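Quick sanity check, S1-like domain-containing RNA-binding protein:
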Amino acid sequence: MINIGQFNQLTVLKEADFGWFLDGEDFGSVLLSKKDAPDNVLVGEKTSAFLYFDSDNQVAATTVKPIAQVGEWGLMKVEGVNSVGAFVNWGIKEKDLLIPFSEQRGRLSEGQTVLVYVYTDKASGRIVGTTKFNKWLDNTPANYTRNQQVELLIAERSDLGYKAIINGEHWGMIFSSDVFGKLFVGKTLKGYIKQVRSDGKIDLSLQKLGVQKMDDLSEKILSLLEKKGGFLPVNDKSTPDAIFALFKTSKGTFKKTIGGLYKQGKIIIESDGIRLTDSE
């Protein structure tokens, strides 16, 4: 089955001076131009190509990977606005992606960068984008457990912190008090379920919770110390950015963890860093 707006494995039918014709099944033969084709295209074999509708509403093929395929989110720049809606650059040179006015949470303007979900409009069959995400997320109750690791997509900044899409399915919130490192709309990262509230809302954390979190960090610190000859130039006086760059954790958690390692006699905290003890 051919999926427009996604990569497909298509059989190469024949070669022409300007490219190759691929078997688009119900859509007929589809041209893949030589400027977009890989070096190993052979007649009778399959090749991977992204299919989309060109400016003449004909199915076209390219090997260029768009910022987001149908069913995915991506950060895109608004190239222009007309009476139909806003057009964003989704990585396909020949065709910008339309976000109709009805699919905009707020009116978009040229030059703006926004997070976009790409989908196929059932009525027209066209590939379009939307900044209204709710209808594409799962509204059934979430079945997550505390400390479960999940994939996060930062979707929106708010007065409370950052709203994130969890595993492409549910909304969650990272409160400002739990934010460390640099977050921005469109960033993907791993996170953890902090709690699922009685009203179904989900609180998120960027690091494991409780003792388990500190145990994991202890192992990371000791392992890196061993790799670096027993010394690291970070301690409880280091900046949050310096700590995050090494361990992807908050300064508070780092301080508690090295404090525990010091009490166990595993490290020495010096004025310019931390050092393994002789026993380690």
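Posting the structure with no commentary besides this: The chain has four domains: 7-62, 73-134, 149-205, 210-276.
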